[in-house]
Amino acid sequence: MCVDHAGLALFPSASAFRCIGRLAFPLYCFLLAQGFAHTRDIRAYARRLLLLACVSELPFDLLIFGRLSSAMEQNVVFSLLLGLLALCAARALSARPLPCALSILALMLLAMVTQVSFGWLGVALCLAYGYAGGDKKRQALFTVLLTLLFSGVARGWVTISLCAALSAIPILLYNGRPGPHGKALTFFFYAAYPLHLCALLIVRALRIIPPYFLG
Q1: CB–CB of 16/211 below 8 Å?
Q2: Which of 62, 85, 121, 196 is deepest in the core (most CB within 10 A)?
């Protein structure tokens, strides 16, 4: 993710940065599905994501669009929040297929209408990982199929978005065990998103990294 945004902010002509960065989003969706399966408080989880999305929107718009607010695209945390809501809907309406399908479709449409990053893909990936459970082969297969489908319909992003399919490799290698955790580490993981956006804004403004200091 940091490599992706660094390429966008500092080296816009270097596509390698964006290709590497495409691996991040499926992994975030995968981790969100894991969090949904293991969290003790879904509402608190959703509140944290909503707060993070709102806090991150200002530095996101400044970095990507150079303005305080833009309706062109909303930051990726909103995509993850919609994915979490889709998982909640799928669980709550599991015995009612039609309302369940309509709710999920509505969330996908909301993602596209509000222009959140990656559109419908966030909802689809989170649901796919939730459906796959602990089956790593299914998880990897869904990663490849959905990212390839998204690459086929995303305008101008085919080559770069295809790299997202490579995220199936770390998903296949996941051992199913939780890593280090704690309140401080959790806070750091949440804070890292807006903080790295702010850091890139400062670096770009001060022109301390090529190609800026050369000009």
Answers
A1: no
A2: 121
Q: Is 1 helix (H, G, I), strand (E, B) or coil?
A: coil
- Residue 214: pLDDT band with limits 50, 70, 90: very low
Closest CA to 125 of 97, 87, 162: 87
Residue 104 has pLDDT above 60, yes or no: yes
Whole-number pLDDT of residue 172: 92
Instruction: Output the pLDDT for position 213.
Output: 46
CA angle 161, 164, 166 (to 5 degrees): 135
Task: Classify the phi-psi angles of 139: left when phi > 0, otherwise alpha if psi is within -120 to 50, otherwise beta.
Answer: alpha
Q: How far apart are CA 143 and CA 26, in angstroms?
A: 7
For the entire predicted model, the pTM comes to 0.89
Cis check: omega of the bond before 170, within 30 degrees of 0: no
Distance CA 7, CA 15 (A): 8
Angle between helical axes of 24-38 and 136-153 (0-180°, round to 10): 130
Measured distance CA(46)–CA(183) in Å, rounded = 17
Packed helices 97-113 and 120-132: angle between N→C axes, nearest 10 degrees = 140
Bridge partner residues of 16 (DSSP): none
